[in-house]
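Researcher: We're teaching a course module on how sequence relates to structure. For the next exercise, students receive a sequence and then see the predicted structure as tokens, so they can try to spot secondary structure elements on their own. Here is the exercise chain.
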Amino acid sequence: MGYTARHCCCGGLSPMRLRHIEIFQAIMQTGSVSGAAQLLHISQPAVTKALQHAELQLGFALFQRVKGKLVATEEAKTLEPEVAQVFEALRRVQQLAQNLRQPLERPLRLLVIPTLAQYLLPQVVPLWHQRSRQPLSIATQHSREIVQKLVLQEADIGITFHPVAHPNLLMKPLLQGTLRVIASPGQWTEQELQQPCSLASLAGQKLIGFDSHDPMSGLLNSHLQQLQPPPQIQTRVQNYQLACALVEAGQGLAIVDPFTLMGSPLPSRALEPRISITLYAMSRAEEADQPGMQLLLECLTRVVKPALACTL
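Model: And here is the predicted structure for the students to work with:
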């Protein structure tokens, strides 16, 4: 493998082919010709021949044998990050092609942000199966991953709070609710529970915060920064279920969306002034009107609507 570079000429060299990239990546992953052959389901001589051809075209060695083992050359180490990106892009193309070949009777593939999954789905799924014979496949993902899987046709519909601008995707607002403040049981009197919780009353209070990437965090920060003294945010979390658990443990108040509170025993009060949050359905624009998707959204709306202060 190291000797091939010495036999190639300096001119007329060709770039790596896709097969060369597969062989190179497999050897980098497994560390041997035999391992690469097993990974790619081809013979060891085929791997050796393809590697020699790649080195001949490149004009330099990719691996050297050291004490019976293949060791990547400095050139190979430099190539590896770029080759990895090409290999990943190739994998995505193959996955997209496979998805396009899938039959029409495949399950309706639903992606939901983790915040909504725990309380919404146990109520939506039975209603769906009462009204449809189509199988339903469900997974939880964050908004960025939902966009990626929709574009790659690895999912059919996504439910999120975060509106995303993408030329191939359609964002449909479903329902709108207002943010609520939650506290541990017994912290508020019965009279207080009947009244909104003013933003001003949170000044100086212990408050569970959210990760800066959370869409609701951006809604709240501008309001909370105006309070004097500001709330004491000593803990930040990435999901609302964890925030509810910390509130129940007496670690402070939290401001959450009304969807999260479905099924939660924690006392809550409407935040005043009211701050709205919208639930969106995301799908590929050309498939948004498919009957299965519309039926799923009807089931979702039927479950969620009674829990909200207002709807779109």
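Model: If you want an answer key for the exercise: Confidence is low (pLDDT under 50) at residues 2-13. Residues 74-101 form the longest helix (28 residues).
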